[in-house]
Design a protein that fits this description.
It is a single chain. The protein has about 60 residues and is α+β, with helices and mostly antiparallel strands. The protein has one domain (about 10-64). It is built from 2 helices and 2 strands. Strand 1 and strand 2 form a beta hairpin. The N and C termini lie far apart (about 45 Å). About 5% of the residues are buried.
């Protein structure tokens, strides 16, 4: 991969398996990007079998 020049739009991204938050590629994940599933330790410890939420579901739940 080419060296990073400050433009995060060109980096790959994918949704978190628990909360659906979009995660951007990080250099420390370079060797295992395919295995990265969670955006944080909180999501890693949360329900592992849960379906990812959509952003609309998250907003609807927060507004109630």
């Amino acid at each position: 991969m080419r060296s990073f020049r400050g433009n995060k739009a060109t980096l790959p991204s994918k949704p978190c398996a628990v909360c659906g938050l979009t995660m951007s590629w990080r250099k420390r994940w370079a060797k295992n990007w395919e295995q990265v599933l969670y955006c944080s330790d909180r999501c890693r410890k949360a329900q592992r079998g849960s379906k990812p939420k959509t952003q609309a579901q998250s907003l609807a739940k927060d507004s109630n």
